[in-house]
Write a structure and sequence with these properties.
Length: about 260
């Protein structure tokens, strides 16, 4: 730790808990408590119940969770593939062209996600690219919104990568494709898995653009949460939020194990 004084370390720990508990931990605990309650008229929730979770298992919420996971997986894989390819290609371009590519990839992040949803709705509502009302437009919207993070993660990893490994492999007669698959990509694997986890988490929680383009037969869970809270079902919405957090956390833990193994390679 950078703080060597014992008293200073305790002060840093106290400051961390003073900021972490009210800003991060407490809201999550409130959501979990609300999901297990049937009422909340005082300082603490009342009427402990598991009815909200039973409704999730029996109703459309489970389908919405599966929809969110499938959408996030498809968007993450597409974004990671596109971002990695673009970062590798941009590495060999000139500074001006590289800055132009950086701008193009960061543009969807620089504008509100509602604008991205509206632009896709207008672009894909007419032939020959008629995707409005299909699940594909939702996947495309999520991919557009998260590709920038994959691109930036891989670009930063490439900047830190020691070129000596690539040069040594090329000097021994390895072809560029072999160097890419057996040298460069394995060294980038920890960053690739981290980028995949970030893209997945962002896609799981995306709402603004999704609200504008989702079809009736492809409703992600954040839309269900918004609909439940909008009609006043706060406790049911809290249970849906817990299910969303749990599903996201399970996948991220799996990605974390892959990243840990990749780091020891």
């Amino acid at each position: 730790m950078l703080v060597h004084s014992k008293l200073a370390r305790r002060a840093v720990h106290l400051l961390f808990f003073a900021l972490f508990l009210p800003l991060f931990a407490l809201p999550l605990l409130v959501i979990v408590a609300a999901s297990l309650a049937s009422g909340w008229s005082g300082a603490l929730p009342s009427g402990p119940t598991l009815a909200h979770y039973r409704d999730i298992a029996q109703g459309d919420a489970l389908t919405a969770l599966i929809t969110s996971v499938l959408t996030a997986l498809a968007a993450s894989v597409t974004a990671l593939t596109t971002g990695t390819w673009a970062a590798l290609a941009a590495q060999r371009l000139g500074p001006r062209t590289r800055r132009l590519i950086d701008t193009l990839f960061l543009l969807p992040v620089a504008v509100p996600s509602v604008v991205v949803g509206l632009s896709l709705l207008v672009a894909f509502s007419q032939p020959p690219f008629l995707l409005n009302g299909t699940p594909h437009i939702v996947v495309i919207a999520h991919t557009v919104l998260v590709t920038a993070f994959a691109y930036q993660s891989v670009t930063a990893a490439l900047a830190r990568l020691d070129p000596a490994y690539e040069q040594s492999a090329a000097g021994l007669g390895a072809r560029p494709a072999y160097v890419l698959w057996r040298v460069k990509l394995p060294m980038l694997l920890p960053s690739l898995t981290a980028a995949a986890g970030l893209c997945f988490a962002l896609s799981m929680g995306e709402l603004s653009a999704t609200m504008m383009i989702y079809p009736p037969d492809w409703v992600p869970l954040p839309v269900r949460i918004f609909a439940a809270t909008d009609r006043g079902s706060l406790f049911a919405g809290a249970a849906l939020a817990v299910a969303l957090m749990a599903g996201t956390l399970i996948v991220l833990l799996g990605v974390s194990r892959i990243r840990t193994r990749a780091s020891y390679r």
